[in-house]
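Hi R.,

As promised, here are both runs. First protein below:
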Amino acid sequence: ALSKPLDEAFSLWKQLLEKPGIPSVRCPEQTVTSLHLLASLYRLQAQPIQALESFLLLQSLCRRLRDHLGRANALGQVTGILLQLECPSQAQV
């Protein structure tokens, strides 16, 4: 029940980001921050799969925005989650 608002937010971000190119948002930097917060909240709730998916969305957005530091941070988080899930071969890729 606690993750329902997070799930709804994730669904909306996913719909927005499935289109190619930079999304039409008021402030792309704030969108990056919002996605990072969403992924972190999933992680705090011990929902690693949802956190992983959220960090992958964040990574995709950062790639489009050419935010190399944000993308590296998101990929580092993805790697950490994959290692936590005992998927070292996937983390290595």
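And here is the second one, sequence first, then its structure tokens:
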Amino acid sequence: EETVTMTVTFAEYQPHVGDQDALKLTAAGAVQETGQVVAKELRVRLHTPELTLTETPIQVVFQNPLPEALTGATLRMEGAGISCPKPLAL
């Protein structure tokens, strides 16, 4: 048995994520004595930043955990008394 650690940076996986909030990892190997192939898949959900909301006026606070600026992001507010989502470009 052997443990191998591999670090994947945001810059490496970001082009492949798209609109998904998860990564699918696949590990494969072969048994030397028999040639049998062994594979395992793991789905890892990415963490989103926590939001802090306060009332009157509403203030939304979050911190981008990524080393890259957000572009084209939109915040949509929904709730009681709001007849349709109100988009706000960030």
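A quick note on the second one: The chain has a mean pLDDT of 79. Let me know what you think.

Best,
J.
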